[in-house]
Amino acid sequence: MKAVAVLLLVMCHLAVSHAWKCRAAPQLPTIVQIDAGQGKVVARDASYSVYMLCGTTWFKLGSPRLKHVTVGPGGIWGADTSNRVYKYVNGQFRVASGLYMQQVDAGGDGQIVGTTYNYYGYCLRSYLAAAFTGTGSLSWTYSSIYLRYYSCGPLYGCWAVDTSFRIWFTKKMVPTSCGISSWKRISGAAKMVEVGTDGTVFVVTRGGHVFQRTGITSGRPQGTSWTKIKMCLSIHHLSYDQSRLWVVSKGGIVMQCTQ
């Protein structure tokens, strides 16, 4: 698998010249989803097993069959194939009673956001997320309807993709109350959006193309435009942390890209 990944990346560099330089990352067979935050990288494979990257080796985390896993300031969280929510506590995943979620994100300032199985957006306040150790029911705060993917950063706000693949933005969320400003429609279309801890934003389109939001500042947190990141492989999923863009191709190849 690694040899194939290296060969494909060499071919990519011969065919494409761009600001982002990608190399083969440690490979995880049948990888489907990846998330990076606070210097950690987690992923899940086609069998719904969850892993963490330690050095150059993927180590399995626990036994729940998770379809989405996330890591960030709020810890490691996931949603299983039955849409139950889990938090990784003291070396094992603990199920959290409350809402059923199909996607969760821990990239905000301690709060957890996500979408339910029927595509409603919710937020778990930071102090509730931090206090959860495996017992009791979690109380989520409603934040939006018809979201298929939801991601927040600790600096400039939250981004989302709705069920019609439209892109939305809201200014910095208050982590202790999950309070937000109104949602603003952003040009473009995507199947997923990810926000880095430094406010950097990337999307993946249904066609497997990657775009980065440019012009993001504290005074204009929604940015100004999209810039395409040229890749010769069709991309399925990505995440960004500490100046590294982690991408998973539709063929299951993991790459780490830097500028």
Please provide a written account of the structure:
The chain is mostly beta strands and 259 residues long. It has one domain (17-258): Regulator of chromosome condensation 1/beta-lactamase-inhibitor protein II (Methylamine Dehydrogenase, Chain H, 7 Propeller), CATH 2.130.10. The protein is 8% helix and 50% strand. The chain contains 2 helices and 24 strands. It has helices spanning 2-15, 126-131; strands spanning 21-24, 31-37, 40-45, 50-54, 57-60, 66-72, 75-80, 85-89, 92-96, 101-105, 112-116, 120-124, 141-145, 147-153, 157-162, 166-171, 184-189, 192-195, 201-204, 210-214, 225-229, 235-241, 244-249, 254-258. The strands form 6 sheets. Strands 1-24-23-22 form a 4-stranded antiparallel sheet. It has a 4-stranded antiparallel sheet with strand order 2-3-4-5, with no helix packed on it. A 4-stranded antiparallel sheet has the order 6-7-8-9, with no helix packed on it. It is globular, with a radius of gyration of 17 Å. The two termini are 25 Å apart. It holds the Pfam family Tectonin. GO terms for molecular function: carbohydrate binding.
